[in-house]
Each structure stands twice: as structure tokens, then as C-alpha cells.
Design brief:
The protein contains 9 helices and 16 strands. It has 303 residues and is α/β, with parallel strands linked by helices. It folds into 2 domains: 195 residues, Rossmann fold, CATH 3.40.50.720; 88 residues, Alpha-Beta Complex (UDP-galactose 4-epimerase, domain 1). α1 links the parallel β1 and β2. The mean pLDDT is 95.
């Protein structure tokens, strides 16, 4: 992608931040967020990204232009507790108001989650698998909110004729962090890591490099009605496996706490993603090793 005018919402987040930095190398990038971390805002400004303070929950986009070529919606309001009304207002209604404001866009990419699926044990989920709520034990409102967001995006794509694509992430990670990184911190401090009693607790990792690389073909695949695709790699990896590998790299020992009151396995097929953008490239062990080398080189075992 070159010379496009791109809006990224939620640009200070774990996934969107490296995406914004990369796209800014050859495009005019605008970033919309609350910017509670001034260091992240300064880093975005330093590479020429236009930063606009926007509260997605309020749906006030008057300071944003309307002539974006592409919109990438990474924004999510997580701190809602058990308040479903706030969840739906801050996330589902907000994305609808954003799409209404940016209805001239050539394509709209909405970042969803494999949290939208019904718990299915160790079954590999496709885009046609039953929807439900697999995140209730960790985030009471999250799955419901993600399903509601998708419904709003689908409606707006048709109502405003915006070519759209809904991308369901499954455990993103990389040199800017992710779930495996938090598990490494728990290992460092001797904190037990919850894993489901329906062992192993398996997910489908995708590295930030593969997320970035797939964005242009995913935007090209946006359509009306909205396209839907699982945004994950090919590697189904358990918490037990990636913590064990982190232990090999660092000498830290994971302590697992088996409980039914944590996330179940969520494994997703990326066959459709491969048809749209090709196979992901970063193998999970290589990605984990690079994550540790970048974020906590002090923890690496010395030869």
C-alpha cells in the first residue's frame, strides 16, 4: 500500500500500534484514540502520523476528515466491567457511527475476535461455526459485544454501501507483546497461569508481521455484503506449549493452575485467509523467540 489516506482507530493498542507505524512508511496515516499514554502518541507523531483525540464511546468524529481511502477499526473499550449497556454503546454503536462518518471509504476493515464463537472444545472453528460466548469467564461482556459489533458492521456495509471485511483475530502476539508475553511475566514472578481443565488449552497464534502483511489483500477482499475471515496463523499452539518454550529460552518455570473457570480452547481455521492473502510466514517458535529477544533480552539464558 502506497500513497493512501488511512484512518486507524485504537492505534496505541498491542496490535494496531505496529500496524500504524508500518503503514506510515508509505501512506498518510491518521490515528484516532483517547491517547491516555502520551509516549505512544509522541511515537506516532514522530513518524508523521496525524493524531486526533476521539472517544469512540461518545461517537463524536467531527475532528476527523471524511475522505479516507481505508479505515482500519482496531478500537475496543474493555473497561466496562459487567455493564452490557456500556459494552454495546461503546463498541457496537460506536463502530456504526464511525462507518456512517467514513462512508466514502474504499474499504473498511473491522477487527473482531474468535471470541464470537460458541465453545467447541478442541474442534477447529471455521467462519461458518456456531456463534456464542466463549469469553464469559474472563470478560463478561466481551463475546456479546464482539457479536454485536459484527452485526452493526454488516448492517452499515449494506446501508452505506461500504466494502467491508470482518477479521476475527485469534491470539495476536509479537514484538509489541501479547498473551504469551503476559504469561512470561507471570512465570518471572512465580504467578500461577490458569489453564482450562479440558487440557491442553489450545489457540491459533498469529504474529504481528503476518497481520501487517495480510492487510492489503484483506482490504482488497472487502465487499458488500461484508466479508468475514478468521485472522489467525496455521499453528495451533497450547498455553502449555508456548510457556514451555519460553521456559527453554529463559530458564523460567511455568506453574499451571488447572480450572474450569478460565478460557477454553479456541482453535480457528485460516484456510480462507490463505485463499485471500496466502499462508502466514512466521512460525510460532521463531515468533516467541523474537518476542523475548526484543522485549526482555535480560531474561534469555546465557550460553
Amino acid at each position: 500500500m502506497k500513497n493512501a489516506k488511512i484512518l486507524i482507530t485504537g492505534p496505541t493498542g498491542q496490535v494496531a500500534y505496529p500496524v500504524a507505524l508500518k503503514l506510515a512508511e508509505a501512506n498518510e496515516v491518521w490515528a484516532a484514540a483517547r491517547f491516555s499514554d502520551p509516549k505512544k502518541r509522541d511515537a506516532l507523531l514522530a513518524v508523521g502520523i496525524q493524531c486526533i483525540n476521539v472517544d469512540m464511546a461518545q461517537g463524536d468524529f467531527r475532528e476527523l476528515p471524511q475522505d479516507f481511502d481505508y479505515v482500519l477499526n482496531f478500537a475496543v473499550v474493555r473497561d466496562v466491567g459487567n455493564d452490557f449497556d456500556t459494552e454495546l454503546t461503546s463498541n457496537a454503536e460506536a463502530v456504526g457511527l464511525l462507518m456512517q462518518h467514513c462512508r466514502a471509504a474504499r474499504a473498511f476493515l473491522h477487527v473482531s475476535s474468535c471470541a464470537v464463537y460458541h465453545p467447541a472444545g478442541h474442534e477447529v472453528l471455521t467462519e461458518k461455526s456456531p456463534l456464542g460466548d466463549n469469553h464469559r469467564t474472563m470478560f463478561a461482556t466481551y463475546s456479546v459485544g464482539k457479536n454485536a459489533q459484527e452485526a452493526v458492521v454488516r448492517f452499515c456495509a449494506r446501508a452505506f454501501q461500504i466494502p467491508s471485511i470482518i477479521c476475527r483475530l485469534n491470539v495476536p502476539y509479537g514484538n509489541n507483546g501479547g498473551w504469551p508475553y503476559y504469561h512470561m511475566l507471570m512465570m518471572e514472578h512465580g504467578v500461577p497461569i490458569p489453564v482450562n481443565t479440558d487440557a491442553p488449552s489450545t489457540y491459533t497464534l498469529i504474529h504481528e508481521d503476518d497481520i501487517i502483511g495480510s492487510i492489503p489483500p484483506l482490504l482488497a477482499a472487502a465487499k458488500v455484503p461484508a466479508e468475514i475471515v478468521n485472522w489467525s496463523g496455521q499453528d495451533h499452539v497450547s498455553i502449555e506449549q508456548w510457556c514451555g518454550y519460553i521456559g527453554e529460552l529463559t530458564g523460567l518455570e511455568p506453574k499451571f493452575q488447572y480450572t474450569p473457570d478460565t478460557l477454553p480452547s479456541v482453535m480457528s481455521s485460516n484456510a480462507k485467509l490463505q485463499r485471500l492473502s496466502g499462508p502466514t510466514q512466521v512460525k510460532w517458535k521463531d515468533g516467541i523467540r523474537r518476542m523475548v529477544e526484543t522485549m526482555r533480552p535480560d531474561l534469555l539464558k546465557r550460553a
